[in-house]
Amino acid sequence: MRVVVQRASEASVTVDGEVVGRLPRPGLLVLVGVTHTDSVATAAQLAGKVWNVRILDGETSCADADAPLLVVSQFTLYADTRKGRRPSWSDAAPGPVAEPLVTAFADALRERGAHVETGRFGAHMQVALVNDGPVTLVLEA
């Protein structure tokens, strides 16, 4: 499992003109990619990393600052671009495998007390972001 974490002063996800997820206040936008070997345990481990990473103001974490998270699935995080001009998606888990693990990731954050909003799995989404800093990290489990 791979995530891109961005510190955001604002972020939202829109599907077909409808906002389906939004940060109610500054927090983190988390783009989540799933590969074939991931599990619920992987999702929980990575959720713990994201919850405790100290990248908010004053070197605090979401756990310290009670900051919200916007979780958005993004299979393209597992693109293989080593050959040619067309990315391969073979390292990305298929939807029936990935969707429950993205949900498990979001649920693991909620179990820690996080306010979590999400995008809509498999939908064509427009993600709006005001990256604060900018601060962007790639985390893997």
Instruction: Please give the count of helices.
Output: 3
The biggest beta sheet reads: 6 strands, mixed
The backbone outline, from C-alpha atoms, is globular
Helix content: 10-25%
CATH superfamily membership, which one? D-tyrosyl-tRNA(Tyr) deacylase
* Mean model confidence by pLDDT: 97
Any idea of the CATH class? Alpha Beta
Q: How many strand elements?
A: 6
Q: State the secondary-structure class.
A: alpha/beta
CATH architecture title:
3-Layer(bba) Sandwich
How many domains? The number is 1
Work out the strand percent: 25-35%
| Run of helices and strands | EEEHHEHEE
Do you know the CATH topology?
A: D-tyrosyl-trna(Tyr) Deacylase, Chain: A
- Work out the radius of gyration: 14 Å
N- and C-termini, Cα separation: 6 Å
Low-confidence stretches: none
Give your account of this protein's structure.
The chain is α/β, with parallel strands linked by helices and 141 residues long. The chain has a single domain (2-140), classed as D-tyrosyl-trna(Tyr) Deacylase, Chain: A. Helix content is 24%, strand content 35%. The protein has three helices and six strands, in the order E-E-E-H-H-E-H-E-E. Strands 1, 2, 3, 4, 5 and 6 form a six-stranded mixed β-sheet that branches. The longest helix has 17 residues, at 95-111. It is globular, with a radius of gyration of 14 Å.
